[in-house]
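All the exercises in this workshop are built on plain-text protein records. An example says more than a description, so a record of this kind follows:
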Amino acid sequence: MSKRVTFQHSRRPSMSRVSGAVVAAGLGASMVFGAGAAFASGTTGTAGTAALAGAATTADSVAQQATAQSKAATAAKNKAAAWKTPVNKYVLSATFGTGGDRWSNKHSGQDFAVPIGTKVVAAHSGTVVKAGPNGGGDGPAYGNAIVIKHSNGKYSQYAHLSKIQVKIGEHVNTGEKIALSGNTGNSSGPHLHFEIRTTPNYGSAINPVSYLNSVHVRV
């Protein structure tokens, strides 16, 4: 009898099994890698959000400071630009251009009737160019007087003062106290004589009430 020869074929994994393993392996790697990526992404996102929030807070703070500084600068600028009456409580008496026996020429200013010792303030910021008796150099009729030069080329004058509280060359701000009202010089009663001039000297006065109205000050 002849012997039957049996060939033992080595078993190879089926393609379906191989494919399944590859797919499984791929899924495993993908899942692991994906989880790590998701974790890293989540961590980075949290840190980034915190950083952005911090930057936004800093930016808001800087913006608020800039706004505050801008408002302060605007307020200072507006204050420097503002004009006001030289006394707060008053009764208007002799007006600009009035004629009469009391003046050798027509009245050169506006009189504010106030008690002696009333606070007199600078109608606008500027530099004191005259201050003293004899009208500060404009004549004895003014009594004690002050003249202030302003940046727009105008001058303001304050006369018949009982006390002068500034010196020539001194810078004053709008509303700053410069004197006390009085009854010195050619005066028929306690009041402040106020002028707006185009030069520091007598003879260059313009209507002070009209001028104050033009710079939004109601008298």
The chain has two helices and ten strands. Confidence is low (pLDDT under 50) at residues 1-11, 13-43. Helices lie at 15-81, 208-214. The longest strand covers residues 155-164.
